[in-house]
Structure formats: C-alpha cells, structure tokens
C-alpha cells in the first residue's frame, strides 16, 4: 500500500518536513508520479520489527541479575 507524504508523516508520527528531508537524502524510498511522492508502507515494517526486538532485548538485559564477582575475597 502506498502512502502520500502526509499519510506517512501521520503513520510514523513525524513532521512532513522531516519525511521530505528523508526522501531527499534517500533514507526513505519513494516514487514520484509526476504530481506527488508515493511511499510504500511495507518498508517501515522491518524497522518497527527491529525496534520491538531491541526493546525486548534491552528489557531482558536490564532485568538480568548482576553476577557475583568471583575475585572478591572475604577478609574479615
């Protein structure tokens, strides 16, 4: 499904000017049909999947207990 710049900005919760800049710098793939840019929404699915995976891995890392240091000696 193709989105316009305005629809893409709403979909990603970003300003339209930022989307235009990303297209100009070729960070977002878009097709110009002679009147407007059309952006395939599927290119963002992979990004959102990676963001969710990163959040999950960070939570697992954050909840991992700190291991005891084997070099610490009780000298009392």
TrEMBL record:
Domain Helix-turn-helix: 2-45
Pfam families from the UniProt entry: HTH_17
GO molecular function terms attached to this record: DNA binding
Gene3D superfamilies reported in the protein's UniProt record: 3.90.105.50
InterPro entries: HTH_17 (IPR041657), SinI_DNA-bd (IPR010093), Tn1545/Tn916_Xis (IPR038148)
Protein name: Helix-turn-helix domain-containing protein
Organism name: Neobacillus piezotolerans
């Amino acid at each position: 499904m193709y989105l316009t710049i305005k629809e893409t900005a709403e979909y990603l919760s970003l300003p339209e000017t930022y989307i235009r800049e990303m297209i100009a710098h070729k960070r977002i793939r878009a097709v110009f049909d002679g009147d407007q840019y059309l952006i395939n929404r599927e290119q963002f699915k992979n990004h959102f999947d990676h963001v969710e995976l990163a959040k999950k891995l960070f939570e697992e890392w954050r909840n991992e207990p700190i291991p005891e240091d084997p070099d610490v000696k009780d000298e009392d």
